[in-house]
Hints:
By secondary structure, the protein is of the alpha/beta class. The protein has helices spanning about 10-15, 40-45, 60-75, 85-95, 110-120, 135-145, 165-175, 225-230, 235-240, 245-255, 260-280, 295-300, 320-330, 360-365, 385-400; strands spanning about 80-85, 105, 130, 150-155, 180-185, 200-205, 220, 285, 310-315, 335-340, 350, 375-380. About 40% of the residues lie in helices and about 15% in strands.
Amino acid sequence: MSKHDFKPANNIQDLQYFGEFGGVNPSISDSSTYTFLSAKTMFDTFEGNADGCYLYSRHSTPSNLYLGEALAAMEGTETANVAASGMGAITPTILQFCQAGDHIVSSRTIYGGTYAFLKNFTPRLGIETSFVDITKLDVVEAAITPETKIIFCECVSNPLLEIADIEALAKLAKKHKLQLLVDNTFSPLSISPAKLGADVVLHSLTKFINGSSDTMGGVVCGNQELIDTLRNVNDGASMLLGASMDSLRAASILKNLRTLHIRMQQHSSNALYLAEKFESDGLRTVYPGLKSHPGHELMKRQMNPQYGFGGMLTIDVGSLDKANELMELMQERNLGYLAVSLGFYKTLFSAPGSSTSSEIPEEEQAQMGLTDGLIRFSIGLDADIERTYNSMKQCMQEVGVL
Ligand SMILES: *Cc1c(COP(=O)(O)O)cnc(C)c1O
């Protein structure tokens, strides 16, 4: 099967689960603990030898397994393990692969929380990270040492929207016997990293996948061996660090997942419309769907085209003061909310330098091109994007950035 025959939304559509009374949605397991008729089965279940039996909800629950299966189907991996948040999926996975003395090569433009974890937290455990420009493969390869265990990147990076060449990075990882871990939070459905050779695909479900900004969630998609290791009661990082998802949330995220394909198409077409308008108005606009984007051709090559270039775009309005003035005005006119996060039906905007990427020291922000006047937009599901554009343009003229 060529990578372009992979149909992630079909895989979600084709899953079929029924509830206890023939309900069209699976029943939610509203229990933290489970009874056993025999004490022997309880022991076997604890040791992981009694398939289909549940013991305790930090270990696994039917609802969490349904959601995990659906996400594994979406990414085309053997299986998956859901977590209470994106960080609750990312941090145990990294810790499962690395121990004291090991080394990580990471993209320097990644989510602020992941950056802080690798920069400030894992060194306490003797794990060091080199941060590199992930778009420069020679630089990535040069950073690999005999101690390196993983390469970490985001498909579409936060907040600069750089595009990682997953196929090339997977080849590099294979050559050096490393694991390629990819955070696909910004580009669900649009990019299928496992089909391009990534070993592990991570998501914050909090963003596009759930899409209603009402819950946190995360997932690790990978092979059975990895997921079993993460869940091992004796030394599994997901099991022991305890960021397990609650069943009620797993059930609600599964329901939202079913409309992800429609939402991504709308986020993408709205974002492309605005990006083209902003760019032709003369604003410094970054969007992977624009020909001016350095990763445009690469993204076209590796994407599932029907879902578009995603819902995230940035503009640079010159200074933090202007950015703040514009965001406050846009919020006042109900064009969106001044809020972090992404994937909501309303447009969300924030200045990453002073919010979601503030963990990155200022001089490093400058080096990677993260400027003060940068505004990150998560474009909403607006039914009338032309009206939105006209009102945004009005705001931009009023604050003097156009
Ligand atoms: C939000 C986000 C995370 C962290 O997820 P949480 O659900 O907030 O823990 C990780 N990576 C990316 C790219 C994100 O946007």
